[in-house]
Amino acid sequence: MTWALILCHGGKFIVQVYSDLKCVYSGSDSKYVIRKKSGGRQSNCDRSKKIMTSVGSQMRRENERILQEHIDAFMEEASALLDQCKVIYLHAPGMNRLVFMA
Fold first, then answer.
1. How far apart are CA 2 and CA 58, in angstroms?
2. How far is CA 90 from CA 5, 35, 39, 47, 57, in A?
3. How far apart are CA 24 and CA 44, in angstroms?
4. Whole-angstrom distance, CA of residue 13 vs CA of residue 28
5. End-to-end distance of the chain based on CA atoms, in angstroms?
6. What is the pLDDT of residues 34-54, one digit of tens each?
7. Residue 67 neighbours by CB distance under 10 Å
């Protein structure tokens, strides 16, 4: 049986496809998108408050964009394998869910 595991949370992403218990595809990426001590993604803060213009906030916004591009690339690479999967386990809370449900 072929199955997949997709995790996307806190600027970290991983997609793995298994055939029985053997991993046949794995792709992962991690970017700095979480505001330290304040919690939450930069885009969440931008929506709820005045948009910050610090270097850190600009880095986090750019990293969110880059992470989205990398996720799209990994999902495109794995699309043929994902089509064969009987079960796909997805953990993408909050705004991350929009990446996969859109």
1. 40
2. 6, 24, 23, 26, 28
3. 35
4. 5
5. 27
6. 766 666 655 555 555 666 677
7. 20
- For the entire predicted model, the pTM comes to 0.79
DSSP secondary structure letters along 34-92? BPTTT-SBHHHHHHHSPPP-SHHHHHHHHHHHHHHHHHHHHHHHHHHHHHH-SEEEEE-
Residue 71 phi/psi, 5-degree rounding, is -60, -45
For residue 100, the SS3 value is helix
Exposed, middle or buried by CB within 10 Å (0-12, 13-18, 19+), for 12? Answer: middle
CA 95 to mean position of chain CA atoms: 10
The SS3 assignment for 24 reads strand
CB-based burial label for 41 (10 Å; 0-12, 13-18, 19+): buried
**Residue 78 and residue 51: Cα distance in Å, rounded?**
36
